[in-house]
Amino acid sequence: MSHVVVIEDEGTVREVVRFHLERAGLRVSAFETASAAQGALGSADALVLDWMLPGESGLAFLRRLRGDPGSRRLPVLMLTARAAEAERVEGLESGADDYLTKPFSAAELVARVRALLRRSLPEAPPQLANGPLMMDLAAADARLAGAALHLTRREFDLLAFLTQNVGRVYARGELLDRVWGADFLGGERTVDQHVTQLRAHLGDDPARPRFLETVRGKGYRMRSWTEEG
């Protein structure tokens, strides 16, 4: 499950942002000041940052982040009431990846955060492995203990995504966005159906999964083969 840190000093806005991002299946840590958020940034996958903050401004904090090798590549969406073009340019030139002007819609907020998360995904290696499961992405070939798995394109894409991110839990909505794309109109039940189909291909028992584990109330994850036994 992707972790988004929110830094917004206005309590109402902060809780609205938290609510809608959590509803979209993301894990959210929300803070009033940049200093309070410092400890959470090490595990963050994206940052939603308000321009106007008490003490150190969001803009100054962003410049400091971009000077730190550990946070230089952290995707940042800047929130601000400043709508002038020059100010938007200043925010982007200071290191923001995207810019959202208040007031904003919940749908646009979620879409922009998801877009940042997609762009920040590491490029998949051409071949993936997890124990006896081997996947060749270029050839769209998946094998279990040397035997070919005859998967649909979506089954292959879902299995590849989870195998690339072994051990990480993804909510159904997040999997829809990452594998099917933001324009897909189907519901979360689609993910459940594809996981069921993949388990049949893999000979996986849902009660004692070797590969695809259901994490109650959160989503799915690919177990590391080293967890076996």
TrEMBL record:
A GO cellular component entry from the record: protein-DNA complex
Gene3D superfamilies in the record: 3.40.50.2300, 6.10.250.690, Winged helix-like DNA-binding domain superfamily/Winged helix DNA-binding domain (1.10.10.10)
Keyword Transcription regulation among UniProt keywords: yes
Keywords: DNA-binding, Phosphoprotein, Transcription, Transcription regulation
Listed GO MF terms: phosphorelay response regulator activity; transcription cis-regulatory region binding
Keyword presence, Magnesium: no
Signal peptide: none
PROSITE patterns for this protein: OMPR_PHOB, RESPONSE_REGULATORY
BP GO annotations: regulation of DNA-templated transcription
Domain OmpR/PhoB-type: 125-224
Domain Response regulatory: 3-117
PANTHER family, alphabetized: DNA-BINDING DUAL TRANSCRIPTIONAL REGULATOR OMPR, REGULATOR OF RPOS
Protein's name according to its UniProt entry: DNA-binding response OmpR family regulator
